[in-house]
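Researcher: Hi, I'm a grad student and pretty new to this. My advisor asked me to get structures for two proteins we've been looking at. I'm not sure of the right format, so I'll just paste the first sequence and hope you can take it from there.
Model: That works fine. Here's the first sequence with its structure tokens right after it:
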Amino acid sequence: MESIITIRNLSKTYSTGLLALNNINLDIHKGEIFALLGPNGAGKTTLISIICGIVTPGEGDVTVDKHDIVLNFRAARSMIGLVPQELSIATFESVLTTMNFSRGLFGKPSNPVYIESVLRDLSLWDKRDERIVNLSGGMKRRVLIAKALAHEPKILFLDEPTAGIDVEQRRGMWNMVRRLRDSGVTIILTTHYIEEAEEMADRIGVINDGQISVIEEKTVLMNKLGKKQLALTLQHPLKSLPDELAGYPLELSQDGEVLVFTFDVQKEHTGISELLRKLSQFGIDFKDLHSSQSSLEDIFVSLVRDKS
């Protein structure tokens, strides 16, 4: 696929000596939703800030639609809309004035139809003449998104975009982001809401301690690293597992009432039939069973723990 952002051997060390990014190599594809996940202090915001021209890179190269972010800063920056994590906004201006001003900063001619469309998508049209200072925190967050879209960017960075927004508004924003992606806008999303990445992302990158530990399509990542479990509720509690079952990936709950079997969904033979025959052989009966597959959150926590 064609890349719209290319990052090669990018490192950043701050004056304090903190190594924020360590040899990052990353391609972000045109028209995708890319979720960047990582714990606090992992380097997410530094990476975004460098691409957007807010922080100077240390070593390495970054291009945005083939424009070098240092040598062709203005061209690269005009491609990007940024929604920062912090609520930094001119609070005494109206919503509409703020959007028009942001559009003018990039030399874009007036386009009332486009501005109205963005504000309606974000449920802000009825508040267009309201001063931002009078809006709720969730509405201010949506104004930041509208402001970032004012100049019709081809790339949109969303740094924790739904923080402080209720569930219903969050889902409405997800729908808007999908429509933007469908129109050809590339979305880069950082979020603490794992379900947000699981719901929306095409690909996922995990960053920890300034290094990218994995980059993969969401479905492939979950198939590769996701585990499936079969939980059997026993007729009679066990004090411990029989020695004959020691070779199976089994866990017994503390109360001895539930037996959990973990298996690989990618293997042709899961081992479930053999396990059930063994349980019957040793007189271990169960009254209920259900299966579950690990979520993206489980995978993320496992990846970060393994790298730390």
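Researcher: Oh nice, that was easy. Here's the second one.
Model: And its structure:
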Amino acid sequence: MGRVPAAVTLARSSRLAVVTGLSGSGKGTVLRALEDMGFYTVDNLPVDLMMPFADSGPLADSAVRAALVVDIRSRQGLARFPPVYREIRTRVPAVLMFLEAGDAALQRRFSETRRPHPVGGASVAECIAAERALMAPIRALADIELDTTDFNVHDLRRRVIDVFRGDSEASGLRVTVGSFGFKYGAPVDGDVVLDVRFLPNPHYEPTLRDLTGRTPEIARFLESYPETHEFLDHVMGLLEFVVPRYASEGKSYISIYLGCTGGRHRSVYLAEEVAKRLSEGGRPARVQHRDIDKEG
């Protein structure tokens, strides 16, 4: 990747991110991305409350990172932003991100949303020009300037993750591996859903029927069939391809479900095994068994 720019190093070590810029440039998308990364977020905080927030708000907890959006909606307070921000930086590690976009892109975005420009004026073009002038002193303080003209929301989210956390593929994507029984209905929140009913069913073995896929007996039964191992190898190959791409798209979580008939034996064993292999590969996974207690 090469040397990390100084501004990005500052962003990754900051405890307070102040997001500002032109209306329609994507500040809301940035704030939501930071919130999904674990930041405590506040939109449209008045300039006069920035210092109290930095001194006694969530940042009083050394484990918390926070992000604020301060923009043209602060009106007269904007004139006080530069000295307030300079003082905050003497108290807490902070970074200022300024979002920009070309006039045509901003006009198109306002046309699509049909929302009024917060500056107010005869035309959106005049409002944009006025806002640029009003925001110029704040822009001069920015540690990071980001032009979102050619970004969609997914592009912007990926860029924010890369700037503030780095290596989006190794991000904090939350992985859940679950089991279920098709007789109780497929899960509605599954991103990847796999049917394992083709494997031999322990239910038909009297000594195994009352056990679950968490027991050594069920594991030995299923592992005695080569197709179990072949299936797991194929599944892990699929997930090695899919999961990093969910992360790079900016998703916060992915749910992987394996289903058998009753959700007690085969799917439980396989969900446990898949989660274990993901964790051993550096991708910690949470396990949940939806229907494990509905039979037996």
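Researcher: Is there anything I should tell my advisor about the second?
Model: You could mention this: The chain has a mean pLDDT of 89.
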